[in-house]
Amino acid sequence: MATTATTMRSSSGLSTDWLEFDRQSEPLDSWDAEEDSILTPEDEEMELDEGEGDGDAAPKLAKKKPPKLEESRSKKEHVNVVFIGHVDAGKSTIGGQIMSLTGMVDKRTLEKYEREAREKSRESWYLSWALDTNQEERDKGKTVEVGRAYFETEKKHFTILDAPGHKSFVPNMIGGAAQADLAVLVISARKGEFETGFDRGGQTREHAMLAKTAGVKHLVVLVNKMDDPTVNWDLTRYNECKDKILPYLKKLGFNPLKDLTFMPVSGITGQGLREPIDAATCPWYQGPAFIPFIDELPSLNRKTDGPFIMPIVDKYKDMGTVLMGKVESGVAKKGTCLLVMPNRTQVAVDQLWSDDEEVTSVGPGENVKIKVKGIEEEDVSPGFVLCDASNPIKTGKVFDAQVVILEHKSIICAGYSAVMHIHCAAEEITVKALICLVDKKTGDKSKTRPRFVKQDQVAIMRIECSGLICLEQFKLFPQMGRFTLRDENKTIAIGKVLKVVE
C-alpha cells in the first residue's frame, strides 16, 4: 500500500485532491485520515532541493546564499517524540538516559547531577535532571513545563518533548503532544504503580487519548521499571500490564498490528533503550531496543510545497522577539516576510534555529526558534500562528464541528461552555447549537435536532469561541482542525472542524 500511495503523490497537484476525496468518503468517526505514505529516496532528495535556494530570489541573496544554505539546512528527517504517562512512571529519567546513551549529555554533567541528587537524598532522580532543568521541578521531582532536548541517529534527528504527568499540568502536556509525530507512553511495572496510573483518576488513559487526538501516528508503550525488585523482569507482570491497557488503546483507535508497539525497559539502568536486553536478564523478549526501533519507523510524508505554517508554542525576548514551535508545512528562510495571525502583523525573519543550531532555512517537522522583526514579544500569545503572508491561515470565531463526547456525567446542550485546546491554542468556547447526532457505526445523521448530547454520543454542533482563533477544516489540514474540550480538569470530548462559519 505504501508504494501505491507514493506513486499517487506525483508532482502534479492531482494526487492530493484524490486523497482528499478518498478521505471524505471515510466513516465519520474515523480519526485517522491515512495521509502518511512512505517517502521514496527520490522524494526526499526533491524535498531537500526545494529548500535549497530559489531561482527567483533577489540577486544579492543569490550571490551570497547558495553555498551557505547547502550546509545550514538540517538534512536528516526530523521526528518529534513526546514522552507521556502518569506522574512518576519515569518519563524524564528515560529521556535523560537516552541523552546520556546517545552522547548528548556528557559524563561529567551527569556525574555532577548525580552528586547533587545524592546530596538531596534523591539519587534515583539524577537522570531526569537533564530534562527537568528548573529548580522547582528538581526539588519536587515533578515535570511542569514540557522539557525539550534532542538526539541524533545515523538517519534521523529526534526532538524529545518531555510532557508533565501530573493532572494539574495537562494543558502543558497538550501543548507538547500537539508538536509530536510519535508518542511514547511510559507505564511503570512496579507493583501498585501501574494500577494507580491506569485506574480512574490516573493519567495514563487521558494521556494516551490526548496523544491520539493530537494526531500522533505511532504509539510506543514502554513498560518501565522492569528491573524493580517487585518485578524482576517477570513476563507475567509485563503481560498483565499489557493486557490491561491494550483494550483501552484499541478503543482509542490505535491498531495493534500497525501503530502500537510494547517494549520492556529500565530507565534507570538503560536496559532496552539503546542495546537489546541481555538474554540472561530477560530471556522472553527478543524484540529490538527502543532507539533502533524508532530509527527504523517509516518516514513521515511532509508537505514542503504548501504555504508556511507554524503554530506558536512559546515566545521570549532576546534582542528581538523569538517564537518557538513546530513547522507544520512549508519552508521559511532568512529574510522571508511572514504574518502573525490572528493579529495580521507582518514580520521579517531575522534568524532561525533548528533545535539550537543556527540554520538559514527550516522545513516541515522541525522544532524551531525563529527570531522576527516587526512585533513585540507581549503582542504574541501561544496559539497564534506564524504563516505565509500571501496565503494566510483561516481565522474564525464560529465553526461547525463533529464532536465525540468521551466522558461527561451530565448532558450537554446549547449554552454549555468548556475550554478548547486546538493545536497550541487554548480558548473558552460555548456550544451555540446542536445540529444533529451521528450514528457511530453507520455514520448516518439524525433528521431532527437533538435537544442534548450525552456520554459516548457523536454530534455535529456549532461552537463559538470567546476570541478570534486560527483554525482550518480537518479534511484540508488535520493538524489545525482537531481539538479537545476540557472541563473541570478533565478531557470530556474530542472533535474535528468541519467548516469555519465566521
UniProtKB/TrEMBL annotation:
Q: Does the keyword GTP-binding apply?
A: yes
Please state which protein family the record places this protein in: Belongs to the TRAFAC class translation factor GTPase superfamily. Classic translation factor GTPase family. EF-Tu/EF-1A subfamily.
Q: Where is the Tr-type G domain?
A: 76-302
Location(s) in or outside the cell: Cytoplasm
Question: Which residue spans adopt a coiled-coil conformation according to this UniProt entry?
Answer: none
Concerning Pfam families, the annotation shows: GTP-eEF1A_C, GTP_EFTU, GTP_EFTU_D2
GO CC term, one of those recorded: cytosol
* Regions of compositional bias (Acidic residues) in chain numbering: 29-55
UniProt keyword list? GTP-binding, Hydrolase, Nonsense-mediated mRNA decay, Nucleotide-binding, Phosphoprotein, Protein biosynthesis
Listed GO MF terms = GTP binding; GTPase activity; translation release factor activity
The highest taxon in the source lineage is: Eukaryota
Q: Quick one: where's region Disordered?
A: 1-76
Q: What biological-process GO terms show up in the record?
A: nuclear-transcribed mRNA catabolic process, nonsense-mediated decay
Protein name per UniProt = AGAP009310-PA-like protein
Amino acid composition bias (Basic and acidic residues), ranges on this chain: 67-76
| Annotated catalysed reactions | GTP + H2O = GDP + phosphate + H(+)
**What InterPro entries does the record tag this protein with?**
EFTu-like_2, G_TR_CS, GTP-eEF1A_C, P-loop_NTPase, T_Tr_GTP-bd_dom, TRAFAC_GTPase_members, Transl_B-barrel_sf, Transl_elong_EF1A/Init_IF2_C
